[in-house]
Amino acid sequence: TAAGIKAFVINVVGDVGLVLGTFILFLRMGVLDYGAMFDKVQTDFTQNEWTLVAALLLILVGAFAKSAQIPFHTWLPDAMEGPTPVSSLIHAATMVTAGVYLIGRLHPLFEWGRTAADVGAIVGAVTLLVAGTIGLVVTDLKRVIAYSTMSQIGYMIMGVSAAAYVGGFFHLMTHAFFKALLFMAAGSVIAAMGNEQSLDKMRGFRKAMPFTFWCFIAGGLALSAFPLTSGFFSKDALLFEI
Questions:
Q1: Do the Cβ atoms of 80 and 142 come closer than 8 Å?
Q2: Tens digits of per-residue pLDDT, 109-152?
Q3: Is the separation of the CB atoms in 143 and 186 below 8 Å?
Q4: What is the reported pLDDT for 8?
């Protein structure tokens, strides 16, 4: 219950930013349709105009809260209290990637207000580094995967903010598959351990649970961009575009 309330409150903060940013754009352009906004942005705003940048920064608050980017990241590890199939669905493929999609979908606005895009790229890079570092020392199995998700979403946010749209969305797609696999494999291990999630108490699964072991190997290799895995191609495309 506490984890749910925390996620709710932080996402509401993001919703407020999104609504205020949208309202500022509507006040100036009078439209909310994507096509009309993209047509009018270069005539209604000067490049990097502070009003446009402010609106986009508020929209970024919504994207950061939804995608668990610093400083709105604390709800995601706590949300691991939920069932593993739920984590596999919304924390690998659907909900947390909404911020990435939002930035990519509004790319004509961010390209005209480059300061906001730069802020998005910097926050994504910082989250990528910080979340990956935290994941090295966490001992809860699902929290390790959660911090890995934060880190990979940081990759995507950095990419789409730096105009690497193809690589960013390609990595969004491949990440959905191998991260869902890791969550489901983690659920299999946790169930076999009687709901024990501490990595310090886990060992010897290769012989006891060979199928789950190979699922973890496949997901882990893709996550670490091992050559010829999906993660290798998507991360390579993303970094090449940047």
A1: yes
A2: 888 888 888 899 999 999 989 988 988 888 888 888 888 888 88
A3: no
A4: 87
Q: Which pLDDT does position 73 carry in this prediction?
A: 82
Residues 118 and 160: their CA atoms lie apart, in Å, by 10
Residue 234: CA count within 13 A, CB half-sphere: 24
Residues of the chain where predicted confidence (pLDDT) is lower than 50: none
Q: What are phi and psi for residue 73, nearest 5 degrees?
A: -95, -10
Q: Is 198 strand, coil or helix?
A: strand
67 in Cβ contact with 159 (< 8 Å): no
Angle between helices 141-161 and 165-192 (to 10 degrees): 180
Tokens of 120: 């998005």
pTM of the entire structure? 0.85
Taking Cα atoms as reference points, which of 135, 150, 163, 130 lies closest to residue 238? Answer: 163
